[in-house]
Design a protein that fits this description.
The chain has one domain. By secondary structure, it is mainly α.
Amino acid sequence: MQFWLEFFSIIAAIALVVQVVMLSLLFFQMRRTSENVNRLVGDLQTRVGPILTRVQILLDDTQPKISTMVSDASHIVYLARGQAQKVDRVLTDATDRLRGQLVHADRILTGTLEAVEDAGMKFKHSFWRPVQKASALVQGIKVGLDLLRSRRKNGPRGDEPREQQEEELFI
């Protein structure tokens, strides 16, 4: 049993030495990596520092200008909106007036067309009735003359029935 105790103690000591060596190697590697990172950070600061300074100066110079531009753009939009509303009111008013004028013109034209139609109907009745009556009178005279002519040529028609003679008068 004594042997096993010494054997495990030696193995534990060797494991402890191996761990110390590993931790030492890790420490030295970590220190070297830390130095490299510090050197890179230093280089980056030397390169980026002037750029950041210039950017900060540029931002400080342009910030009031940008604020003024944004304010001016906001004011322009406000004015444009007001003008657009005025134009909308004017166009709405103009279209309402135009609509009213069109309705008025439609009423006038409708009244005029009705008056023209009434005048045409009155003209037709006042002109065509006498013409028709005159035409009927001329037709009657023509039939009468034709009847007289036919009686002269044929002599008196005593042999034709009276109804046929009257029928010829209406033709």
